Amino acid sequence: MTSPIDRLRAIADGSADRSTGLTLLAGAIAATLLVPLTWLVLEATRVEPDRAWALLARPATVDVLANTLLLMGGVTGLSILIGVPLAWLTVQTDLPFRRFWSVVVALPLVIPSYIGAFTFVSAFGPRGEFQAILQPLGIDRLPEIYGLPGSILVITLYTYPYVYLTARAGLLSFDPTLLEAARTLNHGRLQAFRRVTLPHVRPSIAAGALLAALYAVSDFGTPVIMRLPVFTRQIFVELDSFGQDYASLLSLQLLGIVLVILAIESRLRSDGGGHGDGVGTAGEEPLISLGVWRWPATLLPATVAGAALLVPLWILGLWFVTADLTARPSLALQLSTVTNSVGVAAAAAFVAVATSVPVAYLAAKHDSLAARLFERATYVGFAVPGIVLGLALVFFATGFDGIDLPLLPAIYQTVPLLIFAYVVRFMPQAVGSIHTSTLQVDPQLVEAARTLGETPLRAFRTVTLPLVTPGIVAGGALVFLTTMKELPATLILRPTGFETLVTVIWRAQENAIYQYAVVTSLLFLAVSGLSMVVLLRQDS
Fold it and tell me: For 275, which DSSP code?
């Protein structure tokens, strides 16, 4: 708590006014991020109750709801079943080449799921490459890959790293002496894991499961490619056919599911067990010998990572060698497409970082309700599916007919609106990174600068800003990489004729000419390789 003397001193040197100004600035930024979502609610309320009920009671709506829930549950459950054992193997056992596997099993996270989807369809779908290999053996048909099972499989392969990374972080912070103590009390390995290790890592698993669940309900490209009717696909179809009423109602339903997911995760996290006090030595000295299962255990990371990584690389490499990419000039990759993608991603990263600094700094340096609320408000856009955010911005940019007061109609289908969508969607990545870096700045350094006659603003520029620069760069890089991969918001909000890497991929799959996505996809993988470099450095 701030003492009365400190408050008087703040008023005397003008820092109180600056704090108020910072609070107002952060509040304005948070409000700007939330305003577009209100237009979605307003649009939905315009629908007459009878018509709204008729639309929501459609059998197709029920099917969409059921498919979405089943997809979310399947992906989340399977991600936990894969991610937690992989984290345990790479942290607490003597798995051969643990360091190698700890990096490899995280790499699928950098591949967009829609790239994985169309490569899996090309490999295992009707008349796919794998079918051609098995044809001489008399196998004329493979099991159907489309639908719910195929969607769960593909999305899981590119989302389980969320659970793996969070569970691994929890295990690395686990005090190994607690496990040893449990073993001395005649607890078996399974019982010790269930009663000691699992309560410690449960909040970490819940955090990873939350990310997997949010990804599953917000994914657009994979369900479309896999021909699975879910909310994201149906919303896009209705919007494309001018069914805005139905699209807005579906968006509110999807938003309700997201809120329920967040509430469940929050409850699980609050009910989680205590954290250990160790320094994470489990990753340095394996506690558990796998014995005769030591080498067979490598089949799990090899199978999972191999399926997620080798199938796309195999298909893309085959297309790169054999495909005639000049047969359809309209789908050929143009330099402008690359510059468009890089340009809007870089602009979004810059704006996100610039607007994140005051919000993150306020939250780190001022323990107030307003600071916490403004910071949490920035996370709303990240939790909202891209298709819902895109629809909300359509209503926001084109105006609200019920009020008959068009709001900025000139920005609809413009690059600034597209960049704004990216900022709303991915700004939390920058806020989190900058917030963490700011908390690590020693307050005594700032106080020393103040005692030397520096103003608060100059002390921030000369002391705090250089120290938080790594967090700023990391946050900007995260926003850049995720913006490059964003699909639904780009499809809805991009200007007519404005092509990006993701739109080229999408047009290729719409025309069932996946070969035209090969160069674009390889560019994606090259850019995503930057994440691997960061991961390797952090693990060294």
Answer: P
Nearest CA to 464 out of 482, 477, 447, 481 is that of 447
Residues 6+ apart with CB under 8 A from 500: 337, 340, 341, 344, 490, 494
299-358 tens-digit pLDDT: 999 999 999 999 888 888 888 777 665 656 555 667 888 889 889 999 999 999 998 888
pLDDT tier at 277, thresholds 50, 70, 90 = very low
Q: How many CB atoms lie within 10 A of CB 333?
A: 18
CA angle (208 as vertex; 207, 209 as ends), nearest 5: 90
| Cβ-based neighbours of 381, under 8 Å, separated by 6 or more | 33, 389, 424, 425, 426, 427, 428
414 touches 408 (CB < 8 A): no
* 468-527 per-position pLDDT tens digit: 777 788 778 878 888 888 888 898 889 888 888 888 888 877 776 767 777 778 877 777
CATH number of 46-230+265-324: 1.10.3720.10
* Distance of alpha carbon 208 from alpha carbon 160, whole angstroms: 8
**CB-CB contact of 389 with 381 (8 Å):** yes
> What span, in angstroms and rounded, lies between the C-alpha atoms of 181 and 204?
22
* Helix H or strand E encompassing 456: helix 456-459
- Mapped onto helix, strand or coil, the DSSP state of residue 244 is helix
Whats the size of the chain, residue-wise?
A: 540
Look up tokens 């704090």; give the residue. 19
Angle between helix axes 113-124 and 148-157 (nearest 10 degrees) is 130
Residue 115 burial class via C-beta count within 10 angstroms: exposed 0-12, middle 13-18, buried 19 and up = buried
Phi/psi region, residue 138 (left: phi>0; alpha: psi -120 to 50; beta: rest), is left
How many other C-beta atoms can be found within 10 angstroms of the C-beta atom of residue 153?
20
- The Cα 67–Cα 218 span in angstroms is 13
How open is the CA angle 56-62-67, to the nearest 5 degrees? 135
> Can you tell me the distance from the alpha carbon of 48 to that of 64, in angstroms, rounded to the nearest whole number?
22
pLDDT at residue 363, rounded to an integer = 80
pLDDT confidence band for 7 (50 / 70 / 90)? very low
- Domain 1-45+335-498 matching CATH 1.10.3720.10: the answer reads yes
Same fold, 1-45+335-498 and 46-230+265-324: yes
